[in-house]
Structure formats: C-alpha cells, structure tokens
Amino acid sequence: MTAEPKENKTHVSINGQTYTTTIVSNPVGTPVDSQPNTFDYPILSSVTLTCNVTSDDGSPFTVMDYSWDTTGCYVNNRNERRCFPAGQTTQTVSEDDLLARDAGTITCTATISGIDYTSPSFTLRISGVAVVSNIGGSAENDLVAANQLDDYSVFTNNDFVPDPYEPFIRCASGLGPGSDVNTILGGWHFNGAQIPVRISCGSPVIEVRGANTRIYPGVINLYLCGTFSPGEEGVYSCMMMNSSMMVQTTRVGLYLSGRTAPMIDPPMPSTETVVVGDDLRLSCTSQGSPPDTFTWMKDGTLITSSSGINQVTHTTNMAVFDIDYTINSVALNDSGNYTCIVTNPIGTHNQTITVIVNEQVTVTVTNGVTGGILDDPQLVDAGSSFTLSCFVTGTPTPNISWTRGSMMLTSDGTISIVESVGVSNLTIVNFTATDGGVYTCNATNSAQTEAVSSDVRLNAAVITSNVANIQLLEPLTLTCSVDPSVTTSGVVSYQWTIGCSGGGCSWSGMTMADLTNPYIRGRDYGDYTCTVTEDSAVIGMSAFTIDRIEDLG
After folding, report:
1. Residue 548 CB contacts under 8 Å (≥ 6 apart), including other chains
2. Are the beta carbons of 5 and 25 closer than 8 angstroms?
3. Fewer CB within 10 Å: N-end or C-end of the chain?
4. CA-CA distance, 24 to 46, in Å (whole number)?
C-alpha cells in the first residue's frame, strides 16, 4: 500500500482569518518512534517537500514569498553549512541524492499580506551507507572538490575502470537513528583485509598499490594512486559506525574495463535421456573475465567431490572455460535437475538440464500354460488352445504390442490379448495351420524398443498304434502320420527316439514313418517320440507312451 504524503500544520488567526501552513513530503519517510515529525530516508534516495498554505474558510489569498530554513545541518571542514533546503525560495524543493549533509530540522515560511506564517518543524534523517566514485565523472582528485560530492557517479554492484585511470572512490554515510554526521567513523577493506589510513600516496598498502584513505565528517575517501592495475581489481568494502555503535557496510567491485560477467555458451540442452548403465557427461562452457568458478548442483543440492563426480576444467583460451560433469554407469536415482552455476567477480550465470534415466527394456516370452521357455519352433496340436506370455521391464513402463509376421494383432474371435502392468498374455483358441507363424512381443518406451519372437506352428505329427492293447511277446507298430496341409514339398524326414533301455531292444525303422518291434518285452516301457522335419525345419513332433504291457500267457 502506498503511504499518503506527510503533513505538518500551523494554524494562525489574523483578523479573524485562520491559515494553515503545511510541509508535505513525498515520498513519506519511515517515522521515528517517540520523535514527532521525524522521518528516516535511505541514503541516495529522493524527496520532494512542498510548502502549502490554506485558509480554513476557503477564501482566496496570495502568498507573496516562500522561504526555507534548516537547523542542525552539516558543517564541512571549511565551516560551510551545507543544508537542504535552507535558503531556497520556491514552494516546492527537491533533492535527488540524499546524503548525511542533507539531514536536519526543516521549516517553511509563507508570507501573506506582509505577515509570515511558519510551519512546525519537519526533521529529516538519512540512514545507510553508499559508495560513489569519480569513474565516469571528473578525474579531479582535489580534496575540496571531492568533498563537495559533485560530478561523481554512484556505485551499484561493480564499476569498470578505463585504462589508464586513477580511481577515487568515496563512502558516504547517513547512519541513523540518532546519528551526528560529525561523529561518524569509518574504514575501507580490500578483499576482506583492512586498508590503513594514510595521508599521502607512496608506499604500497596491503595489496592495493599506493592506496590512501582520508576521513571527513560523514565520508571516507579512498584514492588508488597511479594507474589502476589488475592487482588492484577486487571487492572494496566500506564500514561506517556512528556514536551509538550502529555499524553498516556496503561493498563494490572495481575492475578494469573489458572484464565480463560469465555467460554459458553454447547453451546447455534442456534435457538429456540415458539408460541405466550408460555413462553421462554434462558439459558447461562459459566465457568470462576474470576466470570463472564452476559449481554443479543436483535438485538444489551442492555436488561435492565426495559424490564420485569427475570435474575437469579445460582452459581453451584466456576467456573461455568449460567443465565436465561425468557419472560413470548411471542409476535410476541419477535422474534429476542438474544446474551449472558459473561465477566470477563481475557476476554469475546458471543453466539447468533435466537428466532422465530410463531402465533398460527387457522382454521375455514364455509358454503361458507351463511357464517354461518356448521351443523353437513351438508346435501346437490342432484344435487346442495355446498361450504366449510376454513379460517386460523398463523405465518408463513400456507399452506392449503383438505381431504375427508384419500383421498387428488385436483381440478377435480366435485371439485373446489380456494385459496388466508389465505382462501381456496372447491366447490362440482352436489352433489351426493358418494360425502358425512368427509371433513377436514388442516392448516400447521413450528410450528404446525391444522385441522377442517365437516361431509357432501347427504340430503336423500324430503317432498311432496298430493295436489297442499292447501284449507281451507280441509285435507292435507305431506309425508317425503327417498332416499334408502343413508340408510344402511333401518330402519329410522322420527321427524316432525310443523308451527302450538297455541291450536287446528290437525296434526297427528309426528313420521311417513306421517304428516296428516284433516282440514286445518288459524293457520296452517308456516314451516314444517322432520328430518330423522338412528342409531341416521341424514341422511336427508327437509322443507315445508305453506304460502298460499285458501278459496273456
């Protein structure tokens, strides 16, 4: 909320007419507790005072003259009073850069019909510390001229010194509350080290060549005698203390012209996506002078050397530097926002890159009924149901899809696809020869795509026996039949494996369609499997188990 201008009023009655004399200040300062009509203003701020007179009954009148007076104001070392706005004769007075010398108790007087109407007092106090310099203004180092604070520029954060140049900088104070500018003490520091007071230039002082400081009431001057050099670049801080032991400080950087703040260039990308186990390298390149200092942070937390981070600085020329931030074999918890902060005495610059770490996509396809690993090819008996189960992992969670050959599969009358997180089951109902083919489970996320395929075919082989009941010492023939719709050439090969163990097995036709035994014996118990191939590819496999042999003797 903006404060209303402050008014100080005097009511004077002459011949029945009452006038009110008012001092209006804008902006309003900070009121001082327990001290009426007393206000603090920050050093180097601006204020406008207006002397206003009104008649209580609203009748017209004419102000012949205005005058301003100030008491308790600053007296310099030549016994000159420097008072704002004493001696001015306009209704409105202003000061753009308030200093300690401007503090005092102010009254305004309006003259109406030869009679003076004086306002109550308005006390102006100045607080804070500011630094000004001759850089960009007069190069005159005359003490008297410097003490007037004329033709000097105001520091903000840093200033840049032309080459060659002999800088002069001043710390001006207006410490409050209760400050007397004639009792303010102060001192200068360079890069944290105190600069002793000297009355003349000559021998080096601290790290500042030929520095000397001179103190006046409310101000402290620092001269850097001789041409400014790189060794004098740095942070100059001023400390001021008043008689009430109130201390305030301010600081500025002083650098040769041509020095530049950091600038990250080329810009860092906004995101970087890697997979668990990859190596990650983030590079931050900056151009700045003096040299830059690099700091890396992750999600707002400082990254230190103990984090296992490899930071290597490469100096490519005087004003270009880059630093690598490397993580070997990233993990999921390495995801986050990484900020490169580049700093030098002139300024700072930062950029942030978001690192996304994805988990490697894996795909496993199994027999959905047995849970076992699929054969290649996977043979399915005609008319039966068969399920393929696809299990996937990965971050982000992959999407799963199925294809047979190049055709995308969806649930229909013969195929059912049921999915949950990380699992998809494809079931084929009433399997026929037309359902055969290469089935592929595809797992895809934003990082990668992985797929596993399985060759699923109709089982072309069926084993039949020439007898219903197998009898001891009787002949037996097992016939391996092939569905001709499954073959392409009609030329197939057979291979039998038999359950008979030990010596004396009497089976013949191990590579024929018919497997024959003239005399069944007890050793012939077991499983008999016929494998059918066409052009070296398995097209059928069938098993027959002899688990009972009747003895009719």
Report:
1. 470
2. yes
3. N
4. 14
Closest-CA residue to 398 (of 435, 337, 443, 360): 443
172 contacts 218 by C-beta, under 8 angstroms = yes
Query: What percent of the chain clears pLDDT 70, i.e. is strictly above it?
Result: 76
Under CATH, which architecture does the 129-256 domain have? Sandwich (2.60)
Q: Which helix (H) or strand (E) holds 147?
A: helix 143-147
Q: So what's the pLDDT on residue 305?
A: 63
Nearest-angstrom CA–CA distance, 262 and 289: 7
- What is the distance between the alpha carbons of residues 471 and 16, in angstroms, rounded to a whole number? 149
Which SS3 state, helix, strand or coil, does residue 257 take?
coil
Q: Which of 194, 181, 182, 228 is nearest to 209 (CA)?
A: 228
Residue 340, token pair as written in the block: 């490169």
Domain boundaries, the chain: 6-125, 129-256, 271-358, 368-458, 461-546
Tokens of 510: 């191990």
Identify whether the C-beta of residue 443 lies closer than 8 Å to the C-beta of residue 402. no
Topology agreement, domain 129-256 and domain 368-458: yes
What are the average pLDDT values for consecutive 10-residue runs of the chain, which has 553 residues?
45 65 90 85 89 86 91 64 84 86 88 89 83 51 32 50 64 58 68 72 40 56 72 79 70 77 88 89 82 84 65 52 81 91 84 91 82 78 90 89 93 90 92 90 87 89 90 92 83 90 81 92 89 88 90 71
CATH number of 6-125: 2.60.40.10
pLDDT at 538: 87
Closest CA to 179 of 80, 73, 27: 73
SS3 for 432? coil
Residue 205 and residue 207: Cα distance in Å, rounded? 6
The DSSP call for residue 143 is H
CA distance 498 to 496: 6
Q: How far apart (Å, rounded) are the C-alpha atoms in residues 127 and 218? A: 11
177 upstream amide cis, omega within 30 of 0: yes
> Burial level of 108, CB count in 10 A (0-12/13-18/19+)?
buried
- Give one DSSP letter per residue of 54-82, joined into a string: EETT-------EEEEEEES-EE-TTS-EE
- Strand runs labelled E in 158-292: 158-161, 168-173, 185-190, 193-195, 211-216, 219-224, 234-241, 247-256, 271-275, 280-287
Just give the CATH number of 271-358. Answer: 2.60.40.10
Task: Look at residue 501 and give its three-state secondary structure.
Answer: coil
pLDDT of residue 146: 32
Q: What are phi and psi of 102, to 5 degrees?
A: -85, -5
Per the CB < 8 A criterion, the answer to whether 518 and 475 are in contact is yes
Q: Are 100 and 74 in contact (CB under 8 A)?
A: yes
CA torsion 306→307→308→309, rounded to 10°? Answer: -110
Q: Which residues are registered as beta bridge partners of 213?
A: 222
Q: Return the CATH fold of 461-546.
A: Immunoglobulin-like (2.60.40)
DSSP for 329-370 reads: S--GGG-EEEEEEEEETTEEEEEEEEEEEEEEEEEEEEETTT
State the fold for domain 368-458. Immunoglobulin-like (2.60.40)
Is the peptide bond prior to 398 cis by the omega test (within 30 degrees of 0)?
no
